[in-house]
Amino acid sequence: MKWTGVIIVILLFILPVIDLEEAEAKEKVEPFHLTILYTNDVHSHLENVPYLHSAIIEERKKDGEALLLDAGDVFSGTLFFNEYLGQADAEFMNEIGYDAMTLGNHEFDKGSEVLANFIRKLSFPVVSSNVDIRLDPTLAPLMKSRVPEQSEGGKIYPSIIQTVKGVKVGIIGLTTEDTAFLSAPVKEIVFRNAEKKAVEEIAKLQARGVNHIILLSHLGVRQDKVLAQKVKGIDIIVGGHSHTRLENPLVYNLKSVPTLIVQANEYGKSLGKLTAVFNERGVLTEWDGELLDVLAKDQKGNDVYPPDQWAVKRLEQLGKPIEKLKSLDVGATNISLNGDRRDVRTKETNLGNLITDAMLEKANQYSPTEIAFQNGGGIRSSIGAGNITMGEVLEVLPFGNSLVTLNLTGEEILLALEHSVADLDGEAGQFLQVSGMTFHFDPSRPVGDRITGAEIQGAPLDRSKMYRVAVNAFLAGGGDGYTVLKQAKENGRISELYLNLYEVLSEYLSMHSPVSPQVEGRIVKGKE
After folding, report:
1. What was the pLDDT predicted at 401?
2. How far does Cα 174 stand from its chain's mean position?
């Protein structure tokens, strides 16, 4: 009896320990289910927000702890941005409850003060590990160097830790280093090496015991693929910048530690959804991704996602100040004007011809000008046949660029044309639409040696001759990598005309409508 009592006492102490160990073991092997909802490159297309909000609300009914993330380029692209400079976008993002976003290159279009005002209004954090703003007096006060587990809205962090279903999830932000010439950041801002910064932030998070890591990337899908294969520790890349429509996740390192890449098209037309399952070591074991078409109709023609009524009413209120401007007719076109993103970045289009013709005609009113250049990345929308409103013109040319002229040698023009066709596969915005000239290029030839012929005003390009060229101020400042144009500007070979491009185009339309611009062989691809 004596020993029996001792055994009972021992068991009373041991059994709870055994139960606790079994419970802990069971907890460790319990898989972690994570849902991520994501957007990218919305570009202030607030007309789609009521549908997007409805889709988000529906998905959150399925998983109340789903993360909602944005991969950048909230700014620039519609009259809403022109009017409210991001404040309206912030209001909608706050209302639906984003958890984090990273900075896109267009967030720097209007300078640091506009960006800072936008960030201050946000109820959620911005993550940015490779944008060094320490020397920018406007943005620096918003930057926090630590990695928080309780992040503040309206602040910028290199990375953050979110707790989802009791599990720590790290979120890192990266922005394309090309922002230095793709947008208009102040010189005090430095864009650090994205890959190096990703490695550093991953190490910091792992040191904090975080082994579920999401990268919010505004680098473009090509660079995302490189990071997925080279940088260890990334589980999921939520991408932007390239406006890529990924119906299903791209999967890398499938046989070892998988890394997924997702991206949700553009303009808030789609809501990305990824469900991921991790094992106890934080390794992805299962996943399912899809893009939800928030503007879809069912077989009866009804909205699949009926617009959120709060968003509809608020959008109506915000739209009143710009409706008068949007509805003003400035001209007409007999045919559709092609501003398709891919087309204006890879080949001649009739809208590109129309814009550059308008630029050239206007420049010639000031001084004799031979040719005009417009970067395809600055053309943001198409226009249908019929009357053309000022609103449509502003959507085509939303960035507030002004018209300038540069004096360039034929050699400098040739260098600019080579740069224009240097990244066709990437559909880069540097591709030039032109007026007053023609050029041939062969994409099978090495970069820097692709131009096979060029004529200006019907005569062969003379490398030693000086020509006057109409361009937008963005390109003249070295935008889209045009250092050859920036050098001409810095050498004093520039004339400021103090005219906005949308004014130039709307005036041209009012004088020449109805217009019927054609693709006429200004830009010829292939072997000569």
Report:
1. 86
2. 12
Helix (H, G, I), strand (E, B) or coil at 47: helix
Residue type at 236 in one-letter notation: I
Question: What pLDDT shows up at residue 474?
Answer: 92
Q: Give the count of beta carbons closer than 10 Å to the beta carbon of residue 230.
A: 12
Q: What is the mean pLDDT of the chain?
A: 92
Residues of the chain with CATH 3.90.780.10: 328-525
Give me the CATH topology for the region 29-314: Purple Acid Phosphatase; chain A, domain 2 (3.60.21)
CATH 3.60.21.10 positions along the chain are 29-314
Per-residue confidence (pLDDT) for residue 5, from 0 to 100: 52
What's the rounded Cα separation, in Å, for the pair 116 and 284?
Answer: 37
Best CA proximity match to 185, nearest among 110, 86, 241, 128 = 110
pLDDT 10s digits, 432-457: 999 999 999 999 999 999 999 999 99
SS3 state at 74? coil
Low-confidence stretches of the chain (pLDDT < 70) are: 1-29, 528
328-525 has which CATH code? 3.90.780.10
How many angstroms separate the Cα of 440 from the Cα of each of 207, 480, 521?
Answer: 55, 21, 9
